[in-house]
Amino acid sequence: MSLYTIQSPFASNPVETRDELRAYLTGLLDPLAPHTSPGGARIHLGYTGTHYDDIAAQLEGFSRPIWGLASLSAGGGDYAGAERWVRGFASGTDPNGDEFWGYMRDKDQRMVECSAIGFAIAVAKEKLWDPLTETEQTNFAKWLASMNDKEMPNTNWLWFRVFSNLGLVRVGSPYGDKERMVKDLDHLDTFYIGEGWSRDGPEGVVQLDYYSSSFAIQFAQLAYSKLAQEYDPERCEEFRNRARKFAFDFVHYFDSEGRGVPFGRSLTYRFAMSSFWGALAFADVELPAPLTWGVIKGLQLRNVRYWAKQPGAYYPDGTLTIGYVYPNHNMTENYNSPGSPYWCCKSFVTLALPPSHPFWSAKEEPYPASLLNTTHALEKPLHIATNLGGHTFILSSGQQCSYPVKQSAAKYGKLAYSSAFGYSVPVGSLTLEELGGDNTLALSDDDGEVWKCRRDTREARIENGKWLRSMWYPWKGVEVETWLVPPTKEAPLWHLRIHRVKTDRKLWSAEGGFAIYGQGKNARALEPSTGEEFGTLENGPEARATSKAGASGIVELGQRPSRKGKPLRTDANTNLMVPRAVLPTLFDEHEAGETIWLVTAVFGLPSVGDKEGAEAGWEGEWKKRPSVPAEILAEMRK
């Protein structure tokens, strides 16, 4: 079968209406049946390992689809397989049963899975709690409450205990602990940093990725504001106000085709990244223009339908793969089990709403025209977001994970992240091909054997609302200062990177632009351009690659004749979006004792929709060159 004819199992579903969204959910739940244990409590989807035990991994496979099942049930829908989960609640919490999940210990993965379970009984008591016998309900409640006296990580995990207790309180169980819930909420409020944003941890943590929004915090605040109004009205309104502010930043992380900008960890959760938009509707939070109900509906559903159409997101039986656009274990964390991707089921929360809700009754609207061809400095996450010239991406400086995460330099330390081109992760520890060094300045002090990329970014700030400025110290005696300048209307497809490198040793450098699909029209590797539509270009201080995914290039604008461009073919499965990529890269060598200025222009124009290649006329945009801002030029001349 040709690569181009392979389709997702859900490709025929347009995912435009409530019934079609429900059908998509059903299509995800049905394939889980053959993988479910006799008692229903465990769903085994594969044999890959995690840092936690296999029983917890199978609990994860059981619990995460509940986000969708509970929402469907809360909205009056029926699912014939719901009895599998009701059975599982009984058998998984029976301490004398064969499928007992085990009581929770300190910082136990089981705690994570309690969030969906608590939400489920909070919104769908009649269908998921009431069918249990009194003994089963007692076992269930004791198990869920067993986390109340355990130590939890000082992160978004505290929300999982909040929802466990909220669920127990709402079903009338004596095991629900309101006092514990209030203490956790008071502490979670210390993560709030203003303008709608919360960091994922205490002061000093600079991590504002999708966990600060759709994966955890914003989603949880909105769901809580809907479900706890009678217990905690003042806090509920505060959460809603935070969401109102946050939405006007978060909208810039999505493009007009529905894709979110891949950034940070846990991206195998896929369309969970858009669940914030559904949670707004669930909590009945209406926003001012341009974020009308029709726009909110479009932001949510376009993202879901994008993922419904990606064949690599699914195995042939319809279960989800571990990866992003295709199966890829290189980009995963050590807490990603085969059941982890079902966190995406949070985006089915709008099924809890009746058809009369304005989310469903409104006509879907496109991405707001007033937000197209704009650039916005987002102060709290230290991002500059832009979709100028038809390319949605963020410039980034200042975030890093506060604890060891695989590939953290790639997930948080890169200079730019694109909704169309994604980002790349290392698949090895030596060559540049293994590195996948897109949108980074990679440095080596051993003749190119080992390469370092920015991970621990210091002194990061947005200057005058115009550009990002930051420091990076790869070795003692080496410091890198970087300015990231967004596109301008004069050169809308380019952004600038200016680096000042001070070094006490000889260095080798390699700076990458956007990695791009690396195959030609015949699905063979891209060849040097011979005047045909697709190909690679290597021309002194510049490099470029064009393919069905669009055009990507990089150019040296400074006075360094030693800096040479080359389209580098990265190792397979480095890039999140495509398994075979080409990376336009600039190479140079730098002597010890130098202060080096690298002035880099990066070009990117993705294809649009089903159209192959960059939009006609892009070559004219390629010939333009951006200008270094006068303030930075003055710095360079000191």
From TrEMBL:
Lineage: superkingdom: Eukaryota
Record domain DUF2264: where: 17-367, 374-633
Pfam families according to UniProt: DUF2264, DUF2264_C
Renumbered residue ranges of the record's region Disordered: 531-551
InterPro entries cross-referenced by the UniProt entry: DUF2264_C, DUF2264_N, UCP014753
PANTHER family: LINALOOL DEHYDRATASE_ISOMERASE DOMAIN-CONTAINING PROTEIN
Protein name per Swiss-Prot or TrEMBL: DUF2264 domain-containing protein
